[in-house]
Design brief:
The structure holds two protein chains of two kinds. By secondary structure, chain A is mainly α. Chain A contains ten helices and no strands. Chain A is globular and about 75 Å long. Chain B starts with a strand and ends in a 5-residue tail after the last helix. In chain B, helix 6 crosses helix 7. The longest helix of chain B has 19 residues. Classes of the chains: A mainly alpha, B alpha/beta.
Chain lengths: ~250, ~260
């Protein structure tokens, strides 16, 4: 274990110890701040009652659908804007109007359009992810080295499709994957918020638990989100590093 | 010998977007390159040396004049290949795949393609480097890959745009000698642009001076020295002096400043 890992572990342990000490001191009521030591019990209980994996699976489904649609459409639209001046001109004001609207502001329409359903949650999640990928792909394609496009022409690859596949996609890949990764994190943030309104998932379970003042259950799910984010980010970084092994 | 490229009355002018417009970069430019000939082109910055290469390679339109190319058309070759100053490798392709870039789209099966790549990598002395990434190479090695990529398509004419300009002096000399060896072995015609007069004289059968506003070919020097050459042999040093004198006259004529 190197010194950095040691310091990181120490920081986390000290944090947990202080938290435990405050919770046990009686300064605050256990419902306001449950001690970390009660969390494993709460987790075991959620798992054995079958809630934990049901909620995680439900949220995962919203998340994955939202991630897939948001990323795919975001990357496709962002690239189209960067590649075609006509599309670029068309989107300029439109993006300026729609972009600043936070994903959660779409919740009323999501419920009116889709009802309190899986689709509504996926829709809300996809909106935030869409914009992140849209701007990342747009910037990445615009930043592709023009000299490599000239190179491509010089060696006989002059069609739009050849240029796209041989130069633009690989050249923009680091930026596009960077946007996808940011969207990956953004998705977990919105998933809970989207479910707070009763769509079954981690968010709705947290609201139920909060209503019963079962705050230790709330924390179990807060940490579950952190865990799911860490897992998805770690897996993605592995994949990305493999795809981008040509980078120094 | 037969001309491989014959350029008559070429006029080039373009705006910032590369479209033909504005005042001419060069005008009434005539140039003939014989098959198998090594022609070097020197001149002040802005005289349009790179532009001329790009027009020959169909990367830019000319405003006027004719570029007549006599080259063998074949689905297994590309008649013209270019070597750029900054090697211009695709960082996401391994050395082999960079070399194979121009081969994609030609009528070659996988075995033939691999054979070509192996051959040219051996020719530039990088036989064992095929699986490296570009970032793992030195500047000189990167430039060798750029040369191999151009040779792989088996061109009649090699256009070289200051290919050694960014290299240190020792690497540059090594690559000059290797280029001469490759040229000797393959018999390609070469049009080589450089800022370096010593380089132009040492490499070229003929040194062309591009100068004036708008620029044109102001001088053509036949380099009498046979091959192989030595950098310090009299015909070389003498020719360097002559070309330098010619270039300073071109400058005094008001070009390119």
């Amino acid at each position: 274990m190197n010194s950095r890992t040691l310091a990181s572990a120490t920081g986390l342990i000290v944090f947990l110890l202080i938290w435990e000490a405050i919770a046990r001191s009686g300064v605050v009521a256990p419902t306001l701040l449950p001690a970390p030591s009660v969390l494993p019990g709460a987790l075991i209980s959620e798992v054995s009652l079958g809630f934990w994996h049901a909620m995680v699976l439900a949220s995962m489904e919203h998340y994955l659908i939202g991630l897939f649609l948001g990323s795919l459409l975001g990357i496709a639209c962002g690239m189209a804007v960067a590649l075609f001046p006509r599309v670029d001109a068309t989107q300029a004001w439109l993006a300026r109007v729609l972009r600043p609207i936070p994903p959660l502001a779409w919740i009323p329409f999501a419920i009116i359009w889709f009802g309190v359903s899986q689709s509504a949650a996926a829709f809300i999640i996809s909106i935030g992810i869409f914009w992140i990928n849209y701007f990342a792909a747009l910037t990445a394609v615009e930043a592709v080295d023009k000299e490599l496009i000239e190179l491509s022409n010089a060696f006989g690859h002059r069609s739009f499709f050849a240029r796209l596949v041989k130069v633009i996609l690989p050249g923009a890949a680091p930026g596009i994957l960077g946007g996808f990764r940011a969207g990956l994190g953004m998705g977990w943030m919105t998933v809970v918020a989207a479910e707070l309104f009763g769509i079954t998932g981690i968010g709705s379970r947290m609201m139920e638990a909060a209503g019963l003042l079962a705050t230790e259950v709330v924390i179990v799910y807060m940490l579950t989100i952190a865990f799911l984010y860490a897992v998805s980010d770690t897996v993605f970084v592995r994949v990305r590093d493999r795809l981008l092994q040509w980078q120094q | 010998m037969a001309a491989i490229v014959q350029i008559d009355n070429l006029v080039a002018a373009f705006d910032a977007r590369g479209e033909p417009a504005g005042s001419p970069v060069f005008a009434n430019l005539d140039l003939t390159i014989e098959r198998g000939e090594f022609v070097t082109l020197v001149g002040p910055s802005g005289a349009g040396k790179s532009t001329l290469l790009r027009i020959i390679a169909d990367l830019m339109p000319a405003r006027d004049g004719t570029v007549h190319k006599t080259m063998q058309q074949s689905p297994q070759r590309r008649p013209i290949a270019m070597v750029f100053q900054e090697a211009r490798l695709m960082p996401w392709r391994r050395v082999r795949d960079n070399v194979a870039f121009g081969l994609e789209g030609l009528r070659l099966d996988a075995a033939e393609r691999n054979q070509r790549v192996d051959d040219v990598l051996r020719l530039v002395g990088l036989a064992d480097f095929g699986d490296r990434w570009p970032y793992e190479l030195s500047g000189g090695q990167r430039q060798r890959v750029g040369i191999a990529r151009a040779l792989a398509v088996d061109p009649d004419l090699l256009l070289m745009d200051e290919p050694f300009g960014a290299l240190d002096a020792i690497t540059r000399q090594t690559l000059q000698d290797e280029l001469l060896r490759i040229w000797h072995e393959t018999g390609k015609s070469v049009l080589f642009v450089t800022h370096d007069i010593d380089e132009a004289v040492y490499l070229g059968d003929r040194v062309l001076l591009l100068g004036g506003t708008p620029a044109t070919i102001t001088q053509s020097y036949d380099i009498a020295a046979g091959r192989p050459r030595r950098r310090d042999q009299e015909q070389i040093t003498e020719a360097v002096t002559r070309v330098k004198r010619g270039l300073s006259q071109t400058f005094e004529g008001g070009a390119g400043i």
